[in-house]
Amino acid sequence: MQIIPLILAGGGGTRLWPLSRGHYPKQFLAVTPGATLLQGTLQRVGAKGSTVAGLQPPAVVCNEEHRFLVGEQARQAGLPFERILLEPIGRNTAPALTCAALTYTQEGADPQLLMMPADHLVQDAAAFQRAVMTGAPYAEAGKLVTFGVVPTCPETGYGYIQLGHALGKDAPAVNAIAAFKEKPTVGVAEQYLQSGEYRWNAGIFLLKASTWLAAIERFAPDILKACRLAVEQGSRDGEFFRLNKDAFAACPSDSIDYAVMERIAAADPASCAVVSLDAGWSDVGSWSSLWEVSAKTDSHNVTRGDVCAIDSHNNLIFAESRLVAAVGCEDMVIVETPDAVMVAPKARAQDVKAIVDWLAEQGREERLMHRRVYRPWGTYEGVDAGERFQVKRIAVKPGASLSLQMHHHRAEHWIVVRGTAKVTRGDEVFLLSENQSCYIPLGSTHRLENPGTIPLEIIEVQSGAYLGEDDIVRFEDKYQRA
């Protein structure tokens, strides 16, 4: 029996703005001290030291924009992926699982796939692993196994699973699925909690690849047809597998629950099972939920960074780049980043998405990007900007290089402040060390590389009539960007 963790890392996490943004969503953030949510997911399913028999290195499904972030965070955690599937466009969880299952069955394998989102928090990894071990024999026997979180409050933000009859004497408990329930009202959620017969639907599944493909063919054959074409016409690029863009774009967008689970639970309940999960789970879906699962001060505040909280209670206060001081605040969320400050009552934490919608309507970059922007070769960060100029701090990882490129509307001046730079400028190739600089004229073909073993840091001064990031013509790029 082989179990392959399949991690879905394509979420956006808009309700944790301004910390989580479109180009750097919450799965890549350390919302609690230590590892990022993605790294935490990897650690609890890492084959090394796991108690789950047959556990293999994980696979991940993510979008093209995040592929190098995914790979880098896995390497930092010492838990690299067995494969990384790249979605050209988001199509929800059912197509993602279908494409992953197809890549294994077309290789002649039929492993169990432990499918889970990358952006959930699980505080008790041992309890999570026990639940997986409990569910594995049922999945091996051909059941579609899901994990239902034992509720701790009358939560209205989650769907629920109604438990059917017990399927054995396992611990944790395994039950048939009586029904899936939509997000309830407060009154209904209280009834669910008091009855003890309901579990939160966590969106975590364990099933054999062939079992899932048979189910998706039965209930959503159009999804299977499009995904099969996307895999067959896909291409490999090192550790990445790119799904065919046109075929995948034609695939209907649907979740695992809607496409299959709700329908098969009603039509063929013997084919499903739910394992009760009591492992300190949270989907970290809002600032208030993060407050609930975080360590608190004596005043019940959750703080990070340079924070002064006087006569303030039950708040979440995050400071990334400067002092944040609060006096007499109660039940508030205050989050500061270098380019934005968000303040909201904790009771309205779910409404933060309205800010993201407003930013989108206004065409504001704060919806998508932080001041520090991550690239395959490193990062850049805005330092200053004015009419016809801007200043950036650029960090290039050892052995990495920017694309060979040119700009129509701007010139650049590079000053090395750390490390050694290899510069291509037209027909010239030369090295710059600390405190040395060079000028890149408008229209000149150029490239910046780090040939050394320590990070390269430069200050870049841009000047010109237009300074947008889309003023780039790439001629060569080792990361295969357009």
Task: Provide an overview of this structure.
The chain is built from 11 helices and 30 strands. The protein is of the alpha/beta class and 482 residues long. The chain has 3 domains: 280 residues, Spore Coat Polysaccharide Biosynthesis Protein SpsA, Chain A (Alpha-Beta Complex); 68 residues, no CATH class; 105 residues, Sandwich (Jelly Rolls). The protein has a 6-stranded antiparallel β-sheet with strand order 20-21-22-29-24-27, with no helix packed on it. Helix 1 crosses helix 2, helix 3 crosses helix 7 and helix 3 packs across helix 9. The protein starts with a strand and ends in a 6-residue tail after the last strand.
Secondary-structure topology with pairs:
Blueprint: E1 3-8, H1 37-45, E2 59-63, H2 67-77, E3 83-87, H3 93-105, E4 112-117, E5 121-122, H4 125-140, E6 144-149, E7 160-166, E8 174-181, H5 186-195, E9 198-208, H6 209-219, H7 221-232, E10 235-237, E11 240-242, H8 245-249, H9 256-267, E12 272-277, E13 281-282, H10 287-293, E14 302-304, E15 307-310, E16 316-319, E17 324-327, E18 332-337, E19 340-345, H11 352-362, E20 372-375, E21 378-386, E22 389-396, E23 404-406, E24 410-418, E25 421-425, E26 428-432, E27 437-440, E28 446-449, E29 456-464, E30 473-476
Parallel strand pairs: 1-2, 1-4, 2-3, 3-11, 6-12, 14-16, 15-17, 16-18
Antiparallel strand pairs: 4-9, 5-13, 6-9, 7-8, 7-9, 8-12, 10-11, 18-19, 20-21, 21-22, 22-29, 23-30, 24-27, 24-29, 25-26, 25-28
